[in-house]
Amino acid sequence: MTPAEFQTLLDRCLDERRDPFCDSTLCAYLETRPDEVERVASLVQRLDVLRRIAAVPRSRARWPIALAALAATVFCLLRLWPSPLPVEPRPALGRVLRATLHPVIARAPFVATVTVREVMVNQPGLRLETFTTRSERL
Fold first, then answer.
1. Is 58 helix (H, G, I), strand (E, B) or coil?
2. Is the four-CA dihedral 5, 9, 10, 15 of positive or negative sign?
3. Residue 130 is part of which domain span?
C-alpha cells in the first residue's frame, strides 16, 4: 500500500467515525511504518476532542446572549425615545455657580480673615453650598 492509499483509507475510516486501529488494513500498514503510528494516534485524539465539544448542547448557551441583546435593545430604545417633558439644561455637579467673599474680622494689622461661600448646585429641591473660612496675610 502506498502512503497516498493509506491516507485515503485513513480519511475514509475517520469520516465514517470508526477507530483506525480497529481496521486490519490500516493496522497492517502501521506495522510496516511505526513512525506513522504516533501521527495517527494524535489525529484520532484531536478528533475525539472535537467530537466531545460538538456533543455539548448549544441551545442553553444561546439564551443568555439573546436576553442580553434584547435588554440592550430595549435600553437603547428607551434612551432614544423622545421625552414628553421639555428638558432644561442642568449645570454639572461640582461646578462653581457663584462665589462670594465676606470679610469677617481683621485680627492683626496684616492678616485678613474671610469666609468663602460657594454654591455648587442650585436646583429645585436641591441646593449645595460650601463655606470656607480663610486667613490671608497681607
1. coil
2. positive
3. 98-137
In a shared domain, residues 38 and 104: no
* Pick from 71, 53, 55, 52: nearest CA to 63: 71
* Residue 136 to residue 109: CA distance in whole angstroms: 11
What is the C-alpha separation between 116 and 10, in angstroms, rounded? 88
Number of domains in the chain: 2
54 grid coordinates: 460538538
Tens digit of each residue's pLDDT (9 = 90 or more) over 25-47:
888 888 888 888 888 888 888 88
Question: Rounded to an integer, what distance in angstroms lies between the CA atom of residue 1 and that of residue 47?
Answer: 24
Question: What is the number of H-type helices and E-type strands within the chain?
Answer: 4, 3
The type of residue at 50 is L
In the β-sheet with 126-137, what is the strand arrangement from edge to edge?
98-103, 111-123, 126-137
CA gap 8, 29 in Å, rounded: 13
pLDDT bin (cut points 50, 70, 90) of residue 20 is confident
